[in-house]
Design brief:
This protein has about 140 residues and is mainly alpha-helical. The protein has one domain. It contains 5 helices and no strands.
């Protein structure tokens, strides 16, 4: 791949994550009470539901801002990968250990089954990792 193609692909993936995180954060904030109630239903994170109800959308917005600026894009992609990995591990844990699966996701994503959500998160984690690899390769080609 040419350096310009690598850079453009990373920009497109970053734009996708910006849209995803702004959408999900906005959805969680607009339905904050429902989000808190659903977090409280989770046996794993109920104890921190108040904190997490603000922390999760805040983190999503911060990551979107990092992805927007080329200077901070690598950090944003690392954070995207980390957040998606944490979400994926949480969903996998819930699927393996809990019979009651409350969904605290926002918007259209809340319509997915837990297994569909797991696969979506795996795909998004891989997409973030792929973009990090592309960015590293682009950096190497410019040297």
């Amino acid at each position: 791949m040419k350096p310009s193609t690598l850079a453009r692909t990373t920009e497109i993936i970053s734009a996708f994550f910006i849209l995803l995180f702004v959408y999900t954060a906005t959805s969680k904030l607009l339905s904050h009470q429902t989000f808190v109630i659903n977090l409280k239903k989770s046996p794993l994170i109920a104890f921190a539901s108040g904190f997490l109800s603000w922390a999760i959308p805040s983190i999503e917005i911060i990551i979107a801002v990092l992805l927007f600026f080329p200077r901070f894009r690598r950090l944003g992609l690392l954070a995207s990968f980390g957040l998606m990995t944490v979400f994926t591990i949480y969903i996998a844990y819930m699927l393996l250990t809990s019979s009651h699966l409350p969904c605290s996701c926002g918007g259209v994503i809340s319509k997915l089954s837990w297994k569909e959500h797991l696969w979506l998160n795996v795909l998004l984690s891989v997409l973030a990792a792929f973009s990090l690899c592309l960015q590293q390769r682009f950096k190497f080609l410019l040297q």
